[in-house]
């Protein structure tokens, strides 16, 4: 495939960061709904609330940036978010590390040294399986 054709479907570093930040948020939403304490309560409700508080303005900016990426890539934002959520939910019953993996991501996000959502790796990187990949170096 010629580089010009590849560039029209690949994602630059800024676009990838936007997509990944939303991926992190969606995966943590699913984990917050799925992971429970022994008594049946949501295990991550408080840390997820702290996550939202810490990144509130960045999440708002990400929502706007995601709309821009979606327009440029002819991507449906709702479909993207649903797809990430569904893929995450499908991991919960088959990955014995699902909740601990999500907890590590939450802990990473809440660490005072972490100052941006773009520094938080998603518990699962669905990019490749969703055809979201970086543009080749020029």
Describe the fold and architecture.
Helices cover 62% and strands 0% of the residues. It has helices spanning 3-9, 13-34, 45-73, 77-91, 98-110. The protein is globular. The longest helix has 29 residues, at 45-73. The mean pLDDT is 93. The chain is mainly alpha-helical and 138 residues long.
In short:
The chain has 138 residues and is mainly alpha-helical.
Average pLDDT, rounded to a whole number, is 93
SS content category = mainly alpha
Calculate Rg over CA atoms: 16 Å
The number of helical elements comes to 5
Measured by DSSP, the beta-strand proportion falls in under 5%
Strand/helix succession: HHHHH
Kindly, what is the distance between the CA atoms of the first and last residues, rounded to a whole number of angstroms?
Answer: 15 Å
Describe the oligomeric state of these chains in a short phrase. single chain
In one word, what is the shape?
A: globular
Percent helix, as a range, is 55-70%
Strands, count: 0
Largest sheet: none
Poorly predicted spans: none
Question: Keywords for this structure?
Answer:
138 residues, mainly alpha, 0% strand
Helix and strand topology:
Layout: H1 3-9, H2 13-34, H3 45-73, H4 77-91, H5 98-110
Helix pairs in contact: 2-3, 2-4, 2-5, 3-5
């Amino acid at each position: 495939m010629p580089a010009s054709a590849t560039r029209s479907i690949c994602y630059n570093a800024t676009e990838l960061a936007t997509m990944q930040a939303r991926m992190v948020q969606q995966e943590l939403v699913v984990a917050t709904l799925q992971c429970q304490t022994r008594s049946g309560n949501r295990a991550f409700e408080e840390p997820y609330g702290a996550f939202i508080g810490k990144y509130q303005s960045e999440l708002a900016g990400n929502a706007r940036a995601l709309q821009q990426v979606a327009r440029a890539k002819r991507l449906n934002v709702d479909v993207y978010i649903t797809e990430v959520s569904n893929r995450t939910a499908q991991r919960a019953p088959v990955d014995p590390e699902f909740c601990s993996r999500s907890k590590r991501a939450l802990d990473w996000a809440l660490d005072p040294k972490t100052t941006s959502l773009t520094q938080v790796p998603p518990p699962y990187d669905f990019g490749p399986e969703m055809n979201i990949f970086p543009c080749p170096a020029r």
